[in-house]
Structures
1.
Amino acid sequence: MARSPQVAVVGGGIVGLSTAYALVEQGVAVRLYEAGLPGGGQSAGESRIFRHAHDDPRLVAFVRESRAVWADWAERFGVELVSPDGALAIGDSALERLHVLEQVGGVAARTIAPDELADRMPLLATYAGPAMFDEAGGAIRTRAAIEALTAALGDAVATAEVISIDPREDGTVEVRSVTDRATYSTVVVCAGRETARLARSVGLSLPVRLAAHVRLTFAVKGTAPARVACLQDGSGDFGEVGVYATPMPGNARYAVGLSQTVGVRDDGTFIDAAALRSLDERARAYVARALPGLDPQPVEFVHCWVTDLPWSEDGVAVWEAGPVLFVAGHNLFKQAPSLGRALARAATGGGLAAELMPQARLGEPQQ
Ligand SMILES: Cc1cc2nc3c(=O)[nH]c(=O)nc-3n(C[C@H](O)[C@H](O)[C@H](O)COP(=O)(O)OP(=O)(O)OC[C@H]3O[C@@H](n4cnc5c(N)ncnc54)[C@H](O)[C@@H]3O)c2cc1C
């Protein structure tokens, strides 16, 4: 006889799917509520960067663990989930982060000379400054990951918006969705932009900063390169100091975005609607200067909400309100597998890892 679900997960982005899958791996009955299509929120699009380089050594260790899970899933699901072409970072900040990687250990990363850089990143203009190569980094095959996890969860995925989360005096939690009412022992909220709103309904105020972001995709001129790495450009040599770029499956298209975001009010209205256009124009201008291997006319756009925490653009934390857990942060795709496992442990009585508690400020640059 099928067991009724003990744990509910709210949100079918990469974090919610990873959490639900980790619960299934533990043999826990789970229901995942997704209001729209799995992977249609902040997890949308075809590519993300997997990189080990971060300012906080604890986060480096956390994503290193995550990389092992990505490899395990790729084998289990029989699909490529992270490209084999690595991740590059250029500029002085790359060397600072390489130092953090060396402190932590266990990550195959090194400085790289201009010739090898040009070979691994044939779309980039001539560059002879400091550069680092992360061998086990690469482009996350986001769509393949969302599809594989959704298929593995099968009937556990319910297409319904959660309307209310109500912790009861008997220690259970009542969840009301558009189409039903059910009771769970624990609820894990991974609702992206909606997480802070749902947290307010149980009396928690999360320090999430809402912003908007644009990423553009460009076609490669001529034949797609056989290999092409992801890129983070902090050099300033091409007129911008915070740029990230990642290939799409097949390498014929390459996505580029400025790390900068555009501030919005709490209700999502823009303070300055033209600011998003300005980011878009700067990204095109950057491509014309730095990436001569691309046609500078964009072929696709991803617009999305960013929900970051005040201590770092890579910050992540989990808040607990009795049997309800809320996760928030930014740049979570790469670490979703280890985050999902940590949330599944916390949801089943194993306790929340100390590093994920808000006071730990995971992701904050360490001295
Ligand atoms: C353009 C862009 C580039 C990025 N680059 C990188 C990168 O290179 N590397 C990296 O690691 N990360 C990157 N990120 C960040 C990363 O994609 C996100 O942090 C991650 O996808 C967030 O996943 P999530 O599951 O937390 O949220 P989401 O994907 O937003 O999922 C939340 C889900 O909850 C659902 N939901 C909300 N409310 C309810 C409700 N009441 N009931 C039911 N369902 C609900 C939504 O429909 C949504 O599907 C990037 C993000 C963007 C947009």
Note: The chain has a mean pLDDT of 96.
2.
Amino acid sequence: MAIRPFLRNQETPFWNRYYETMPREQLDALHLHRLRLVLRHAYDNSAFYRRKLDRAGVHSDDIRTLDDFKRRVPLLDKDEFILLQEERPPYGDTLAVPPDYVAHHCETSGTTGISLRIPYTGYDTERYGEAWCYAFWWLGVRPRDTFYFAFSWGLFAGFWSAYWGVRRLGATLYSGGGQNSEGHIRMIQKLRPTVLVSTPTYALHLAEVARKTGVDPASLSVKFTFHAGEPGPCAIPAMRRQIEEAWGARAGEMLGLAEVHALAPSCPTQQGVHVDETGCFSWSRDPATGEEAPEGGVGENIITTYVNNAQPLINYQTHDLVARYNQCECGRTWAFFKGVVLGRTDFMTTIRGTNVYQAAVENILGQIEGVSHHYQLVLTRVSGLDRMCVRAEPVPGWPAERFLELARIIEERIHQALQVRLEVELAAPGTLPRYELKTRRIIDQRPKEVRRILDRV
Ligand SMILES: [Zn+2]
């Protein structure tokens, strides 16, 4: 049975004002307490952590400050877990609860192409879902709203956790399942949901399909759209405008990592996301020096989750580059990532001396008239140097004789903004692949030894 928050003031902008506005010293004291508990739980119950922490010579009692934790507890990478799980499926010795406590199982792709398996206890799923309540509430969604999920269920954790969140919020949910886009539009017309949940690119695709069938998506009942799985409306302002205009709705996003948590719901200002500091501990590490990055400096987001008791992740390298701030104009004290994720530490391609972030290219494309939101970045390596080609698609109906002109405009705008010239290729409208779940934007054709399969961007 869903828990209906009968007594919650529907007008307050906070889901939990006490935690969301807790002063930093108090939050930090709470983190220290929780981190020590997580360390003890992992050490006592997971053979993997006992080995790892013994080898590093560090135990929960040695951690007296947050600095102790950041410096002394060894970092953890996804591949360590994947290796152990492959040796002894399904979870190797990473599990920290008896196997029959596992209530749900998801998977996420790894850099080696082998999936990481993620177990959750029933309690983990409750906590994971709570993060979505913050997200929905901050955007303006209330228990009286009705959700439409436009995807088929699978091993992808993002939308399962959204489902746990909707139950916790106490709202109504319609699951559209694996039907085609026309079917989803018909369901939305019939059921009149107020919240659409999908990947951001699929929301745009759905709007395209609706228009093709003579339906203006903005005239439908949807007041809010919510997104996960790819960089979304708070990471890419051009995408936010496209989604909000298409649906006549307000768009939010969740920065989540399947194995960690739905870790950062979008701020009401839509300029970034706030770390859910009740569900995890996060700090930012300068990848060059290994030291903590200063406020506003770009660093790798390192996470310890309080939400996954089944397979704890402690000082876990997310490879996401973020700019972290300790305050935000919305009044929340939780760490704020301006622009969400700015890049990946394992996406270290440099084009003639310039780091090119995917979000930057996407923002430029979103501002050029005649360019659709479908694009790919194709990486190749020629004579030891990385090269990147932007493969874009004009909007339907764009005249073929103006393709060349459009390609030149794209090349010029990228050069102006990023100081680097990238090759630009135009694909015929409707020919680049469409995805219901994670969209693959980066096509890496470099030799195996330099290639990284990117699983978030
Ligand atoms: Zn904020």
Note: The two ends are 36 Å apart (CA to CA).
3.
Amino acid sequence: MARISRSKLAEQTWNALKQAFPDSACSLDFDLPERLAIRGILSAQCTDKRVNLTSKELFEKYPDANSLADASDEEIAAIIKPCGLTASKTASVKDFANRLAGEWGGKIPNDIDELMKVRGIGRKIANLIVGEIYGTPAVVVDTHCKRVMKRIGITDSEDPAKVEKDIMKVFDEDKWIAIGHLSVDLGRAYCKAQSPDCGSCPLSGFCGRKI
Ligand code: SF4
């Protein structure tokens, strides 16, 4: 079979994923913007299901940035422990809450560089925050996205920054937010880390299968 261009591959990938997962969306609960941002912080190396459960308890006790900023590290750590990486996530939640209650004047910045000043917030979470809260075009490259994009042949890299750039080159800007969610759906349903189900996968007709 002749090799197809990455642009063509992206077009086919988009069409197949949209058809397979028409209701694709972020799987973190989104009630208030600051809560979504904090769930993003808690999601590092943790399932979205666990984050949604744990954050429910956190927000019952500390419903907004002011109350979180006033809470002690120990109080926050005791609640978010099930999400793992407790010390670094506690520091990150506190730093985020302090900035939101203080220098940001209650409004989350629609600015990736400003968000990345928060302890523990990297490009992935900053992209998630601006994308989900403001609809700012941004690609969230998580472990699923990184894996499936390399297997399909959209990128040759496993470096999230390079994967993000490769995706941005071949998908139109208005698809950047959705392609992150669709990659997660694909990774969970078919393109699993250990045993990809290529036989049933909706991308099997054109995927590069770089496994
Ligand atoms: S065909 Fe296989 S390798 Fe390609 S995306 Fe589907 S499950 Fe993954």
Note: The chain has two domains: 1-23+137-211, 33-134.
4.
Amino acid sequence: MSEHGDGYGATAVRLDQGHIEGSGGLPERYDSRFANPGLPPHVPRMADLDEAAARRAEKQVATLFGLSSLATIVFVVAYFAISPEQAAFIPGIGKANVYNVVLGVCLAVALLGIGVGAVHWAKTLMPDTEMVEERHPQRASDADRQRVVDNLMEGGEAAQISRRPLIKYSLGGALGLFALPLLLPLVGGLGPLPKNGLSTTIWKKGDRLVRDPERTPIRADQVTIGSVYHVLPESIKDSQHVLEDKAKAAVLLMRLNPDDIKVPKELNWGHEGIVAYSKICTHVGCPVGLYEQQTHHLLCPCHQSTFDVTQDCKVIFGPAKRPLPQLQITVDSEGYLVADAPFHEAVGPSFFERG
Ligand code: FES
């Protein structure tokens, strides 16, 4: 587009002089009702005036593209060098799967490098004059189309892509290399299959129920009617895969008036009105986080599946197809709540149901 607004005939106008120029302008009905504040005068940037500043900006852009390339190379190396099973303590995250973290960080840096580099390039070296174009018929005349092509070429020239080979080649390298992470899954797959990952959790008979995140055990007499706790098994402290195990073993603990529970006493796996259910929605696995104390309903915020705690967490609304699995609980000799058995079925989405 022409800097002087002639790229689109009378309709493209330049706005960097503090007012709208050009024979098009705004329609009269707008002119009469709203004063046109215009834009502040164009202020040239450092790189517009000083070739040394322009070269500095060029190097900064190239450094960002180079950083992107480096991250992509580390991604490729890590993809083959790190075992998908390897876990370690990572500051700020805790115990986590190193493979996922490294690949994720590299991908983020690779994308960020290209993105920030492009923005910096645009802000420092590309033309920054402001233009306005009024709406015109969709199909331009052949002459206008040719003019657009000419303008694009002119824009490319103005962006200094041909004069700045460092940017051209570093961007080419970054974009070219960035295709590799997209191709690698075709060669090496998308990591291990989930198999029966949700079939078992770390809950086992005798495991105390502990509050999350305090990790303190809960005595049955501390759980008042109407209260709800987010709990985990005490054995989570020994887990090698804390995030994974925690995600699968999360449980909601509630106390109801035993008379409100509608399932026969011998089928209820609770303790004096205290019941524990998996927190993972059986629809697609969101955490079921809302408990309506008055109705004894558990709600999943993702797609509004609603489970009735008085009926063994039967689905009474929403897309979930089966009840939340119940954790059988009892108390130990000191009165603390403990699991009486592991989950009797897989937790989480129904599509993981056993055949
Ligand atoms: S994940 Fe709970 S309703 Fe969809």
Note: The chain has two domains: 12-188, 209-352.
